[in-house]
Amino acid sequence: SQFQDDCSRGACYPPSDDLLLGRAQQLQASSTCGLTGSEVFCTPYHQRTMKCCPCDSRNPNSQLAHTVQEVLSTSRPDRWWQSRKGENPVTLQLDLNNLFQLDNLMLMFKGPRPSALVIERTLDDGRTWQPALYMATDCEQAFPGVPTRTPLALDQIYCYTLPPTGTNPYQDHTIEFSPLRQYAYVQAPNSQKIEVSGLTGLRVRLTELGDVPRLPGRALSRFYALKEMRVIGSCMCHGHANRCLPEEYNNPLSCDCQHNTAGVNCERCADLYNDLPWRPAEEGNPHTCKRK
Description:
By secondary structure, the chain is mostly beta strands. The protein folds into 2 domains: 17-26 and 87-235, Jelly Rolls, CATH 2.60.120.260; 237-291, Tie2 ligand-binding domain superfamily (Tie2 ligand-binding domain fold, Beta Complex). The protein has helices at residues 139-142, 179-182, 190-195, and strands at residues 17-18, 27-29, 39-45, 49-55, 81-82, 90-109, 116-122, 130-136, 159-161, 173-177, 198-208, 225-235, 241-245, 254-257, 261-262, 268-269. Strands 1, 2, 5, 6, 7, 8, 9, 10, 11 and 12 form a 10-stranded mixed β-sheet that branches. A two-stranded antiparallel ribbon has the order 3-4. Strands 13-14 form a two-stranded antiparallel sheet. Strand 3 and strand 4 (49-55) form a beta hairpin. The longest helix is centred in the middle third of the chain and has 6 residues, at 190-195. The chain starts with 16 loop residues before the first strand and ends in a 23-residue tail after the last strand.
């Protein structure tokens, strides 16, 4: 959804920001190289030669460390997260502990891009997870039975075919995901589409290591590595707020509710304003709660 600060005419939405900022400790990786000791990784170098470098994450501040917190946009230059060699599948998980709206997810991979991955969301703080998008270089082989056509209904998901990596799979590759863009061809109001962007947690499940070229001598290492991750979104207010209130005194980030609504996510009518059933705001109709 685009930022809309005028709540008087209909749905309004808070401005988006990177939900990872300030939540580095809520991001976890199931595999990180060098946590128990130094590991050596070999990657291509000039003209069919290779270079081998260590990873040692026992001290997160070391130049040789590649912990998952290095994927934040505020991280130092030339820093990245890297998994252990050959480990598969690997999961990156962000726990938000409250309902948010995802506008866009950006993943900038370093080294061989994954051949298959699944983006998943949870609405119950990680008790259950639902796939939001499958991605693969070969969807039918990686995820048999998952449709490859663009969804035409809000309850449909599909597999997006990743473009070829080109002659050098070790170049940086960026993958983006937008829930609303995915359902651009669905005939439904934006207020309904926004519901599919809601989440209390986000998980990226890397399920197939990328292919690496064959070089004479020592084998090249296969691993997952992510240079940057951005989770662009805002507090979920169902179209009833144009700003998020700051987190204070251990209270979760909440909406500055308009239209006589209330709750952390403006998910109900305010007290004494229950003359009509609560509804999400729509373009041109705020569905303002009315006093009895």
